[in-house]
Structures are given as structure tokens and as C-alpha cells.
Design brief:
The chain is mainly α. The protein folds into three domains: 32 residues; 124 residues, Serine Threonine Protein Phosphatase 5, Tetratricopeptide repeat; 150 residues, no CATH class. The protein is built from 14 helices and no strands. Helix 7 packs antiparallel against helix 8 and helix 10 runs antiparallel to helix 11. The protein starts with 12 loop residues before the first helix and ends in a 13-residue tail after the last helix.
């Protein structure tokens, strides 16, 4: 197309170029707009209201495996759960359980017979399935898991932007359900150096978790939880502060981790008091990890150095802090000799 100069009526190459560029930009905008509106107008994926038989059976397998602490069965558990998900990709609970199993696979990788580098792929898949579950059925617990695995994935890939995204997701999850997510947000960060700002914040989150659970500020010098045991409940938002069917030893596991964090921070004498609170649980005699906790109390002082050894890839520390141990998940979820089955319904 020949574009004449507006004043001399002669061809002007510069004006022709501007005119052509304008046409290209308009066309690009229209095409871009088409793709935008095509995506935005697509029907939303909605959660299923009825669960399949495969999903129900996979759930039973999930809970039996987790409550028995059978880490070695993760591959076949993922096969069953993924098959159920493919039958019904709109099942939010199945998606959440796949995410949790991948998180378990990553968290307790010290139990694996061979620590292949590909174990880190669990973080990527956990984030995918947790995100899918949350999109279908927003649950503040799942939001906390998304934040945690996003930080983990960012750490693996040395992606600071992704790590920050995960951190702020964790803060959002705390706001949504503090009784549950103060622990979630602090637990993953307990593997960081004790002198780091994030570790100190993570330890503070554990104290704040106790505060919101009992409705007052717990004595930071003498944290005797005996007077609060009357508050134990299986109902409402505070049910997650105590033992429940999902996490049969949630109470004991919480104090084991918090004690470990205090030891790592160098405050081993206060840690002994925190550890001791675990024995207040009526379920303590049946807890598979009570011997671990009792040894922690005895060796609290010497464990200060042990817990501050930063793990190296391919090297398993002899005496790791709970988050780096082979009971990082089952410390709360494992039941001794259970065969009870069920689903996440509360």
C-alpha cells in the first residue's frame, strides 16, 4: 500500500512504516484478545459431588498405609490414587491425597533404600495436585500444604521468586486457619540454619500456635500444658490442636518438633519442658515414637550440635531434627497396630 505524505501528497516511507506497524499492532491485539476471551469463557472445572468406588477404595488404602507408617508402599499407593483420579479428575479429596503422598515421599526420603536425585520431583507433583484440589474445593489446610511444597520446589530449583510465592501463600494460610497453619508454616522452615530470620520466625510460629489453641499467651519460661488439657476437643477449628482420627498423635508430634526446634536454637533446657508436654496426652503410651522423645529429653544438651548439622545431598545425618528424620510425617500420623480405614470427612 502506498501512503502519500499528508501535506505534499507524495509517498512518505516513514509514514508508511508507522501505518503498517499500527495495522500489525491492532491485528496482534485482536488475536491476543481472541485467545484471552477464549480461555476466560471456557467452562470452569467443578468439584464432583459423588465419589467413585475406585476413589473410596483408594482412600481406604491411603489411610491404612499412612496410619501404619508404610513408606515403602508409596509407589503402589500413588498408582491406586492416580488411577482413581483419572477416573474422576474432579475429585478434590483424591487430588489432595495424591499431593500428600508426594509430600510424604519427599519429607521422609531418608527412609528410601536409595536416595535418587529424582526424589525432588515429589515437590513438583505435590504442588500440582494440591493446587488442583484447592481449586476444586478451597481448604485452608491444603492452602498451607501448597505454600510448603512451593517453598520446597523453589529451594530445589534455587528459584527465589518461587520461594517467596510459597512463603506468602503460607502467610495467607495462617490467616485462614491459624490453629492448623502456624505449625505448617513453621515446620518446613525448621530445617533452616538456627541463626536465620526465617528459622526464628518459624519457632515463634510454634509459640503462636499454642497461644491460638488455648486462647491465651502460654508462659514462655514455664510452658506447662497440664492446665490446658481440659480444652481438648474433636469439634470446631481447634480440633486440629489435639489428637484426632486423621493424626492420632498430633499432640505428641507437635511437642516433639517444637522441642527439637528449641534444642536447635540452643535453648535445650526449655526444650526439655516442651518435650515433657507430649506425655500429657492420654494416647502417649501407644505412641510409636515415645522412646524417641524420651531420648531427646535425656540428650537435649548434646543434641544442640547434632541438630545444627545442615544435611548435604546424598549424606544422611546420624541424628537429625524431626523435619529431616524418617518420621517427619508419621510422627503425628502413625498408629501402632491399626487397621482402621476411612476418609477425610471432617
Amino acid at each position: 500500500m502506498v501512503v502519500p505524505d499528508s501535506t505534499t501528497n507524495r509517498f512518505n516511507p516513514e509514514e508508511a512504516m508507522r501505518h503498517t506497524l499500527s495495522i500489525v499492532l491492532v491485528a496482534s491485539a485482536l488475536l491476543g484478545g481472541c485467545s484471552y476471551f477464549a480461555v476466560q469463557s471456557a467452562p470452569a472445572k467443578t468439584a464432583s459431588t459423588v465419589r467413585t468406588e475406585a476413589a473410596t477404595k483408594a482412600d481406604e488404602f491411603f489411610w491404612a498405609t499412612l496410619h501404619a507408617g508404610r513408606y515403602e508402599r508409596i509407589p503402589e499407593l500413588l498408582t491406586a490414587l492416580t488411577a482413581a483420579y483419572l477416573d474422576d479428575p474432579s475429585d478434590a479429596t483424591t487430588a489432595a491425597h495424591i499431593g500428600f503422598v508426594h509430600s510424604w515421599g519427599l519429607a521422609e526420603r531418608a527412609r528410601a533404600s536409595s536416595n535418587a536425585p529424582t526424589v525432588v520431583d515429589h515437590a513438583v507433583l505435590a504442588r500440582k495436585y494440591f493446587t488442583e484440589s484447592y481449586r476444586l474445593k478451597p481448604d485452608p489446610r491444603v492452602l498451607g500444604f501448597i505454600g510448603g511444597v512451593t517453598v520446597a520446589e523453589g529451594s530445589v530449583h534455587k528459584d527465589e521468586k518461587l520461594m517467596r510465592q510459597g512463603y506468602y501463600t503460607l502467610l495467607d494460610s495462617i490467616e485462614a486457619w491459624p490453629e492448623f497453619n502456624y505449625f505448617t508454616a513453621g515446620y518446613g522452615a525448621s530445617r533452616l540454619p538456627a541463626a536465620s530470620e526465617r528459622f526464628r520466625e518459624a519457632l515463634e510460629f510454634q509459640w503462636l500456635n499454642l497461644d491460638v489453641c488455648v486462647g491465651e499467651k502460654v508462659d514462655r519460661q514455664n510452658p506447662d500444658f497440664a492446665k490446658y488439657m481440659r480444652l481438648a476437643t474433636t469439634d470446631g477449628v481447634k480440633r486440629v490442636c489435639w489428637n484426632n482420627w486423621i493424626a492420632p498423635h498430633n499432640f505428641e508430634g507437635f511437642f516433639l518438633n517444637m522441642g527439637d526446634m528449641l534444642v536447635k536454637a540452643g535453648d535445650w533446657q526449655l526444650a526439655q519442658k516442651i518435650y515433657a508436654n507430649a506425655s500429657l496426652s492420654p494416647d502417649y503410651p501407644r505412641w510409636p515414637y515415645r522412646t524417641v522423645l524420651e531420648q531427646r529429653i535425656e540428650r537435649a544438651r548434646e543434641n544442640v550440635a547434632a541438630f545444627n548439622v545442615q544435611p548435604q545431598r546424598g549424606v544422611r545425618p546420624e541424628n537429625p531434627i524431626m523435619v529431616n528424620s524418617n518420621f517427619a510425617c508419621v510422627g503425628c500420623h502413625q498408629q501402632a497396630g491399626t487397621s482402621e480405614l476411612g476418609r477425610l470427612t471432617n
